[in-house]
Specification:
single chain, 275 residues, alpha+beta, 4-stranded antiparallel β-sheet, 10 strands
Length: 275
């Protein structure tokens, strides 16, 4: 059996959602239609693309404990090409403090309670019991990996796993990202708003807020698609303002989206529309 597949099955048997990674720590899709992201899904799952598969198939969302998926035809080629195995820490109630260099490791040793550690190429992973929102660059060389991200599996590590400390939780909420200003291009249609009335815009924003707050599943995808729809309808006429974007961001954050994910979703939606 392929060594990486054997590792993934080992993790799955212990309730840890796993997935294959290609060279460069890039994930594979877990369904034939999305192989090599043919459906247009975002490979890092910061914001999902237009994939309409009946099951999650990208990055952290593809991580699974189901041996039928891990050994199925969709990933048969992936395991042959795999360069590593990843897992979804938040899916098993864990948080990884990813320390990218020696200074970050030194900071952790001074500041954080001892826990299970795993050596990495450039630093260490410190693993705690407890899940929270993920965030990158919370400090120089420090990333927090838990929900909606994957981490490379580098072995079980050493030491006794400690509960997630408040110090780490504070890093995630310490510096929330501001709402990114909306800089819409020059209006089309002779410089006039094609909607003729701002009431149309207000109804659109209200409906978008309701669509986000009413989501019962797939919140991440719902937020992206809603941002995409709003920008498609209103982003080129010049009537969309920072306050409208702030309302949408606030709605997304009430559903658990981080400010960083909101900014990324908004930016990617604009890019998808050529703005």
């Amino acid at each position: 059996m392929n060594a990486h597949l054997a590792t993934a099955l080992f993790l799955a048997n212990r309730g840890v959602p796993a997935l294959p990674l290609r060279a460069g720590k890039v994930p594979f899709g877990n369904c034939p239609a999305c192989r090599d992201n043919a459906c247009g899904g975002r490979p890092n799952m910061k914001t999902p693309g237009p994939c309409e598969c009946p099951r999650p198939c990208h990055a952290w969302a593809a991580a699974t404990t189901d041996p039928r998926v891990l050994t199925g035809l969709a990933w048969a080629t992936a395991w042959k090409q795999a360069a590593a195995v990843a897992y979804h820490p938040g899916g098993v109630g864990l948080t990884v403090v990813d320390l990218d260099h020696a200074d970050a490791v030194a900071w952790a040793r001074r500041t954080l309670p001892a826990t299970r550690t795993v050596p990495t190429t450039r630093g260490e992973h410190w693993i705690y019991q407890g899940a929270l929102s993920s965030a990158n660059d919370v400090l120089d060389g420090v990333d927090i990996k838990s929900t909606m991200v994957y981490a490379r599996w580098l072995g079980p590590g050493t030491g006794t796993m400690a509960p997630l400390p408040d110090t780490v939780r504070a890093l995630v909420v310490k510096k929330p990202s501001p709402v990114r200003p909306v800089t819409a291009p020059v209006p089309t249609g002779g410089g006039e708003c094609r909607h003729r009335t701002l009431a149309y815009l207000e109804r659109g924003i209200t409906m978008a807020e309701q669509r986000i707050t009413g989501a019962t599943s797939g919140v991440h995808a719902t937020v992206y698609r809603t941002f995409l729809a709003v920008l498609s309808a209103h982003g080129r006429c010049g009537c969309l303002t920072d306050s409208h974007a702030a309302r949408l961001f606030a709605a997304a954050q009430t559903k658990g989206e981080s400010p960083r994910h909101c900014v990324d979703a908004w930016s990617n939606a604009r890019s998808a529309l050529g703005m």
